[in-house]
Design a protein that fits this description.
Four copies of one chain form a homotetramer. With 262 residues, chain A is of the alpha/beta class. The first copy, chain A, has one domain: Class I glutamine amidotransferase (GATase) domain (Rossmann fold, 3-Layer(aba) Sandwich), CATH 3.40.50.880. Chain A has eight helices and ten strands. In chain A, the strands form two sheets. In chain A, strands 6-5-7-8-9 form a five-stranded antiparallel β-sheet. A four-stranded parallel β-sheet of chain A has the order 2-1-3-4, with helices on one face. In chain A, helix 3 packs across helix 8 and helix 6 crosses helix 7. Chain A is globular, with a radius of gyration of 19 Å. Chains in contact: A-B, A-C, A-D, B-C, B-D, C-D. Chains A and B meet through helix 7, strand 5, strand 8 and strand 10 of A and helix 7, strand 5, strand 8 and strand 10 of B.
Chain lengths: 262, 262, 262, 262
């Protein structure tokens, strides 16, 4: 079964910031999309990776695109407010219905992630070329498969605790920075029928997405977050369930057939 | 320290529904407020319980009221949409800043609870006089203190799984119904600096809030959810934190003194 | 990659109890092994299922057998004490090193499960032909894949809360019984590098393991619990880690090469 | 209600190690006991702190002592094996029955903690005067009350991930070390009716327990872990529960009155 990934890129720093142009001459989204294609390919997966940009977000993240996306990655930073509310809500709805979602780095402050978390997602930060070390704290997690302990990122923006998120359903990675801070850098959340993996490495001013170990984490996460092909893409149901509905053929009190609850 | 509780009541069924008028002649909010006052009083607590109604929600849940509320209980059902978005967001903000929040029964579908959860909060339901048995599944949880195992509620609306919420941070109670369904009926969530306890018993057509064991759960939950008096009521902070900020007196990169992070 | 499963059966009720002989003429272990073989085969998996019995447990669960087992299922009831302590500890060690473990029904009281949980694993029970309904409470869990909501088991022994286990890392199923009790019937635990799924349906006096939906759960659980083929089968490491060990080639203070931490 | 604390100290390094004698001339246990007495006293608590040493552990941690202990702190390092198995099992039993338990630093490898966790409790370590910074990651946790973010410990032994424990029920603190490692340094676990808080700062060669902020954490933890006075000190019950036992007066199938389940 082909794994269909959509890589959303804000693509704004790339237009105005020389350092970013130098690191990512074709845009961060191109590097991320290429990394997913090659890493998953090397793992034997059949993948179809497309790119969606903010400039035409109504089309690039349309209802049809999302309905045909298994896993959506999201990178945004300076233009969170330019994402229309209805697109953010569309993404959230698709996550609840089963689409995997991988918010990256500064996407901690993106509209869809904040709506899904219900918290401020505040944190401490410092852009000062800290070394980051990404430590695994879950002994058997598939997202940590095949990566060293720790992953060392030579230069990175610092993200520090207290990170105002719900306690993750699974904590995969915790990072330290040369300045002394710590951060819950790899966090799994289950919401509705969707799976979310937040991964904090990846500031635009550092070549993080060129690092093979980071690419492997993204590939692992896409595999982990993909929906089950035989589970209907639809929200967990609300229904008026008459007594014994589950014995005698499921029908709601309104007579509608209950073909699916979860 | 006085525990300041605000009991929010929708007070709409009470105006139009004879059965509810019979069970709660002074409104469900009056029964809940009285139960909290007497049960917490009997436990030796100093409490100040006020009531807030939907009809004047802008004043009854004003910024000033919420700033002086330790724990907010919320009952609503037929008029969730009449709660203004800005009031719902104000409640959510106060929870994140430390206010306790106790959504009751059909408040699973209230605006503040859904914003805090990030999920649909869908479920199955049936209003058919089911017996509900509320079982404790956490051996030392303070919210289960002093209540029987199980609490038997002779008649109740059924709420059934799959309940589309994030996995609770602490599962206190699980209910079964005479029709066979189960429900995670007592759920703790930590969000920001606030504590949330969702408790599902309490449909308007049954005398659930008159039951002493249910009143004890509400009292226990108010004690559990109260904020710590020496913790500032403010959100977890976002700040640009210069290197060594935590050593040399905390100042942000903008020179603002960091007096508080959490 | 072949999934290597060992099905441990106590095989004592089968020798003395006519009802069990009638339901499982070749032993419960044979039914379970057959169900795993056929269900996983139908799902396209390459499996190798062997049986291990209490009568020759030193050989059937030898170090060599366990080292070549990806997932161990365990059914025991009347003879938990006949499992030698060293075999129980061997199983526990292999789980910590990455082997999947599926304790079934009364294996809640088996030596390996209790050692892994650290709690009493006490519960309430009643053998009185209760109907059990197994409800899914996790919208995207692979172990709930392809099974109805709820699974209805016409007759079963009742297991009821309070079940004295650590809070499960993932709650997949919750059951109700016709007598009114509830039970956390499908529970995932991560311990060391191993994955554990406890599943409570399956008393010897009822034909539970002949039910296709139960067989599907067992197959799903085996897939979920299997170790990653590229992760070394060994415990998480304890080591004296000199400063910068992770930069300059990992060596312990004793000079031993650190080839693996997790 | 007086909070009755027993401070267990191994008291072996104090006999042979000059550095430890210099830092803790009356033994580490004396410093810890004094800190708890004074800090809890300053918080307005009525406390009774006694000391128990390894040399007479059969008496100092007798059945009677434990039955009259609300919270037991445990420091041990070089003599874990000298703790008799039956004493370790006695401690574990009391925790399951409701006693609070605070294993400190190298008590991660003590017999009672390992029995309660079910895992190896392995970790990385280095005794090289690392600076440790203890960060709060739970916005409203009572154990983090009144302490700075971070607590800076000038010199400490490094404990590093992967720490082979079950995922904590509540993560309160995460530490970083000047060498770059991270560690889940403050972890809450619920087991049976007891509460466990593991806190890693406190090596014998550094004056950690003289630091006021560390003393505050210990005091907070003792308050958090204390059992509820109206909850019976006994394990969660196993019982044969006849149909309708919870309606008609609880009796087991053997006719014994069920006066307590949890």
């Amino acid at each position: 079964m082909t794994l269909r990934i959509t890589v959303f890129g804000e693509n704004r720093h790339e237009k105005v910031d020389e350092r970013v142009q130098e690191l990512y001459p074709e845009g961060m989204h191109t590097t991320i999309a290429g990394a997913l294609t090659s890493t998953l390919g090397a793992l034997g997966e059949d993948v179809d990776v497309r790119v969606a940009l903010l400039d035409d977000i109504e089309e690039s993240l349309s209802e049809e695109v999302l309905a045909n996306t298994d896993v959506l990655t999201w990178w945004g930073h300076m233009a969170h407010q330019d994402v229309p509310d209805e697109v953010a809500e569309r993404v959230v709805r698709h996550v609840r219905e089963g689409m995997g979602f991988l918010p990256l780095h500064s996407a901690h402050y993106s509209k869809p992630f904040r709506l899904l978390m219900g918290t401020t997602c505040n944190l401490l930060w410092r852009n000062d070329n800290d070394e980051e070390r990404v430590w695994t704290v879950s002994g058997s997690h598939p997202i940590a498969r095949g990566v060293p302990h720790p992953i060392v990122i030579p230069g990175q923006e610092m993200y520090g605790e207290m990170f105002d998120i719900p306690a993750p359903d699974e904590q995969v990675f915790i990072s330290s920075f040369s300045g002394g801070e710590v951060f819950r850098s790899g966090c799994c959340f289950y919401r509705g029928k969707g799976r979310i993996f937040y991964f904090s490495p990846g500031d635009q001013e550092y070549p993080v997405y060129h690092q093979a170990e980071i690419q492997r984490v993204l590939a692992n996460a896409a595999l982990w977050a993909r929906p089950q092909e035989d589970r209907e893409r639809a929200a967990v149901k609300i229904a008026n369930a008459p007594r014994d509905w589950f014995r005698e053929g499921a029908r709601t009190a309104e007579g509608e057939e209950i073909t699916r609850v979860i």
